[in-house]
Amino acid sequence: MKHVTQPPRAWAVATLVTAFLVDQLSKWMILEFVMRPPRIIEILPVLNLTLGFNEGTSFGMFSGLLSGRPMLAAALTGALTLVFAFTALRSRTVPEAIAFALIAGGAIGNVLDRIRQGAVTDFLDLHWQGWHWPTFNLADVTITLGASLLVAGWLRQAGLREKSHG
């Protein structure tokens, strides 16, 4: 019997939808149940749940520039998100399709937040000895994971090319 695999496009769609839904479900649970009332909840010695709203780009960068302009932030992020989504759908390999779809799925979740409430809901507070990474969410996790997979794939390809030529 022949083994049938799903084409990269099917993986891209499934990954994008899953990343988006996990992000939105986690934000809904945080807003409606976990952070009522808002407080700091220690999960691990280096991880807290802390409710925050980000008007900037990833990890709060450019918040001053985009503060009070959620639709501009949504439009800029949305345009870039479309590029990642179309790239995921056009990818020729499953790992590349998944990587681009993770980025697009997370970004769509953050764009929806900006449109719906003017800022992105963040709640993961990573810290160490008084130093805190900017609060983030599961969309940021999927975006970072997708970008890491892309870089790892590109480095692997570069290593294979170098090995075959050297």
From TrEMBL:
Answer whether the UniProt record assigns the keyword Signal to this protein. Answer: no
Function, as annotated, reads: This protein specifically catalyzes the removal of signal peptides from prolipoproteins.
Q: Report what the protein is called.
A: Lipoprotein signal peptidase
Kindly give the InterPro entries that the UniProt entry links to this protein.
Peptidase_A8
Question: Transmembrane stretches, by residue range?
Answer: 71-90, 97-115, 135-155
Which family does the record claim for this protein?
Answer: Belongs to the peptidase A8 family.
Highest taxon of the source?
A: Bacteria
Q: Which GO terms describe its molecular function?
A: aspartic-type endopeptidase activity
Give the pathway.
Answer: Protein modification; lipoprotein biosynthesis (signal peptide cleavage)
Q: Which PANTHER family match?
A: LIPOPROTEIN SIGNAL PEPTIDASE
Pfam families reported in the protein's UniProt record: Peptidase_A8
Q: Which residues form the active site?
A: D122, D140
**What's the EC number here?**
3.4.23.36
Compartment list? Cell membrane
Q: Which reaction does it catalyse?
A: Release of signal peptides from bacterial membrane prolipoproteins. Hydrolyzes -Xaa-Yaa-Zaa-|-(S,diacylglyceryl)Cys-, in which Xaa is hydrophobic (preferably Leu), and Yaa (Ala or Ser) and Zaa (Gly or Ala) have small, neutral side chains
Report how it sits in the membrane. Multi-pass membrane protein
Keywords of the record, alphabetical order, are:
Aspartyl protease, Cell membrane, Hydrolase, Membrane, Protease, Transmembrane, Transmembrane helix
